[in-house]
Amino acid sequence: MTASVSDAVPQLVEAGHSTGRELVHGADLEYFVNRRRVSGGNRCRLLRDGDEAFPAMLEAIAGAQRQVLLETYIIHGDRSSLAFCAALAERARAGVQVYFMFDSVGSFDFPLDVIRELRQAGVNVLEYAPYAPWRPRWGINRRNHRKTCVVDGVTAFTGGINIGDENLPPSLGGGGWHDLHVRIDGPVAAECAHMFHEVWRRGGGDAFDLVLSGPRPEGPEGQAHAMVLGNHELKLRKEIRRAYLHAIDRARRSIAIMNAYFVPDRGIRRALARAVVRGVDVRILIPGPANDLRALYHATRAVCDELLANGVKIFEWPDRMMHAKTAAIDGAWVTVGSYNLDHRSLFHNLEANLICVDRTLAAQVEASFRRDLARCDALELQSWRRRSVLRKVGERFYYLFRHWL
Fold first, then answer.
1. Is residue 323 flagged as an active site residue?
2. pLDDT tens track for 348-398
3. 76, 147, 313, 348: which is the annotated catalytic residue?
């Protein structure tokens, strides 16, 4: 853990992003289920893959003055993971309050000696739901699947990217996984901090005071109306799904969805079909055979026939794992987070998604989506239906177990 941040994760020149100056239109707020929870004055920027997200997060952590909150489903003992650990330890030694939470099952290979070093440096570390099947209330299904980072209560990151070398490109010795994250500057960062604190307390951590201060971003790029949704309470279990459905039902031109584990329930499938009937161009990008969970790969294909028959366009990612969980609607509404359109995210995992209306971010997401589609193979209904009976039976078999996959 003595290596510098720059040594552990190569600092790459950031790719150019859209700098559109369009402000939020009043009609765009119709995409929100509950406008009263929406805060304005946020600035959002899309980050593609670990080679953009990791340097941005590490730079923010290195500049922290008062508090760092970091939670992840997966962290390893590899180069990228040790870079984050080194950054957290350095800030803690400098007197910054640092709280780090990781999921026990997702991070089963996170080295114990690294945890000890973090604590010795002054980092507050919490292993969420430690593996303990002998305990009465322990359950393997209730995992903390979130990936959020909050710095000084004013800057936050969230999305689908875990901490590990698999998210770096092969040219840098990584696994080449494709994923998306987002940086948020503004009031929504405080919401992320509150959600972190709630889960920290529920996971057995001691209460602490949150740092929630700082100026709002000004100018055209600070016009995002946004909220962050989580499901840490039973009454919030379906909030992210409800936000998806509400926005899909109000789509007028386009729906672009990228989802790593795409096994949508009947309500989502019907909403997408209704959108096609209204003349909406509905496109969905799903992982190809390189999906890291083969059972989910087959379960996803069990719903493709119905969607294709209803006019939904489906594209298959041909390369290494596509792990993103994002959507853009009508060039206005955007969501980026950890939430998969499957039953595990709906019923079991703790998730967090940014939900926002921001035409600048939407332009970035749609440009990224078009870039990805250029590499994908489109599924065609007639050829899809000619796949073997054995494949169809296998897909249906795995679909029957969708609640547990």
1. yes
2. 899 999 999 999 999 999 999 999 999 999 999 999 999 999 999 999 999
3. 147
Q: Which of 28, 78, 103, 152 is catalytic?
A: 152
Domain boundaries, the chain: 23-33+41-400
Residue 152 is a catalytic residue: yes
Helices (H), 129-238: 188-202
User: Regarding the domain delimited by 23-33+41-400, which CATH topology (the fold level of the hierarchy) does it fall under?
Assistant: Endonuclease; Chain A (3.30.870)
Query: Of the residues 232, 323, 343, 348, which is catalytic?
Result: 323
Set 78, 165, 179, 330: catalytic member: 330
246 annotated active-site: no
120 contacts: CB under 8 Å, gap ≥ 6: none
Task: Provide DSSP, 353-378.
Answer: EEEEE-HHHHHHHHHHHHHHHTT-EE
With a CB cutoff of 8 Å and minimum separation 6, the contacts of 196 are 69, 71, 99, 101, 148, 150
The reply to whether 145 belongs to the active site is yes
- pTM for the model stands at 0.91
